[in-house]
Design goal:
Helix content of chain A: 25-40%
Order of helices and strands of chain A: HEEEEEEEEHHHHHEEH
Shape of chain A: elongated
Distance between the termini of chain A: 35 Å
Structural class of chain A: alpha+beta
Oligomer: homodimer
Strand order of the largest sheet of chain A: 1-8-3-6
Largest sheet of chain A: 4 strands, antiparallel
Radius of gyration of chain A: 21 Å
Number of strands of chain A: 10
Chain lengths: 224, 224
DNA sequence: CGCCCTGTTGACAAAGGTCAACTAGCGTGG
DNA sequence: CCACGCTAGTTGACCTTTGTCAACAGGGCG
């Protein structure tokens, strides 16, 4: 919206690019990232694909989407990334991409293979590295939950039970109204959704715990 | 839900804690983080407060909420953080906390002042540091948008116009159906919301651009 | 033992999604 | 250069889903 009046940073040269500078370009360093272009509405990477590359946006806009099983091409848009942002950093902590990145305009990207980025970032025991790792892990953990913003209440609830029970994220007792909030609904709705899943036999529910009865059915209810 | 069956990591000692190890505890290093405790439902920090400390969770669960003007104590729960996660990292890139952190159980946290964390992380030109910085900035940019998952469609739209126009996030032309998706609504609803804001005189809208007419009214419509 | 807090259930209202028809703007090809 | 057709966006009618309000019930704690 609103035709651009503000000039965006563009990082056309590695000398002005933060990544280039951090790599020491100009002081004999060489940047592991190399320029690539993508035309409007071309894909940078696709959700679920092996995460082999990390990208840095120099120019243009990229939209991040999560299908969540949806067929609609841009259902589940999650964020827009412009110049200066990294894309696909999840490559550093997992093996597949969490979302799909598609060019919204013509874009200039800098890409690098996971191993090269890894080397560029320096020793993995370094504090900054450890912190980065931790932040990325947290981010990856949050994103699926964010995705659950779409879909009906039962779908969201089913999905939540499914990916929360393995990680046992909640040390046993996250109060139900907090859960409801986390899922973007009101406690009453959570209660109803649980009741419905229970009626279908997928789960068994009491006031203080939820037990999975029929994982198959639960997955089906989650639309997976 | 589901009484804990899986044992959570606890990082009781600095020797086993990733942060402690990255600080070189055991090899003569000293960790800048120091232990603190919080009882169930005590606050760690509050949204909007000066961001002076960064925390690391060693034991227990913390819930992150964003009021978004809401008075309800746990409306707008955003995420749950368990052992191994950092809290309040936004201190590294901004001056106030973006959300409120409240203990969900009794927790053990390690806290450190911003400056100490900064020193601990090492030279700011280091690649890992630059990447961390970038990721944090991106995160901080995304969070407000995520918050907008709550509220009526006009509120969300008003909020979006408001915080998107300064950053001019969209280089001029993010297609409207993408925006709609980003805001978690269907294009028709975005259209209606825009129409309503236009009717109230807050904005002026054509098929390809949105102009702010009356910032005052727009802010009011956004509930700010 | 009784109170209080948290969660459950029901009835109702309202917000938003769906489907369908229509229009503006833009690109393409004659 | 104009006309056609396509895509994105808009508007209306309708219906489903979810939030709201209120009454109620199970469990834990004093």
């Amino acid at each position: 919206m609103q035709r651009a009046s503000i000039e965006h940073p563009k990082f056309q040269s590695c000398f002005s690019c933060p990544v280039g500078r951090a790599a020491g370009v100009g002081q004999g360093g060489r940047c592991v990232f190399v320029d690539r272009h993508r035309g409007r509405s071309e894909y940078v990477y696709i959700e679920g694909e092996a995460a082999e590359h990390v990208w840095f946006v120099k120019r243009g806009q990229v939209v991040l989407t999560q299908s969540a099983g949806d067929t609609n091409r841009d259902a589940g848009a999650r964020a827009i990334r412009g110049p200066g942002a990294f894309l696909g950093l999840e490559a550093l902590v997992r093996h597949t991409y969490l979302d799909t990145a598609r060019a919204l305009t013509d874009v200039t990207l800098c890409g690098a293979a996971r191993a090269d980025v890894d080397a560029w970032l320096g020793p993995s025991e370094a504090p900054a590295r450890a912190a980065l790792q931790q932040v990325l892990l947290t981010m990856c953990g949050d994103i699926p939950r964010g995705a659950s913003a779409d879909g009906s209440s039962v779908v969201r609830v089913a999905r939540w039970i499914l990916d929360d029970s393995p990680t046992a994220q909640n040390g046993g007792s996250v109060p139900r109204h907090v859960v409801a909030n986390l899922l973007g609904m009101v406690p009453e709705t959570l209660s109803r959704a649980l009741a419905q899943l229970a009626r279908s036999g997928a789960i068994q529910v009491t006031r203080q715990e939820v037990k999975i009865r029929n994982p198959q059915a639960l997955r089906a209810a989650a639309g997976l």
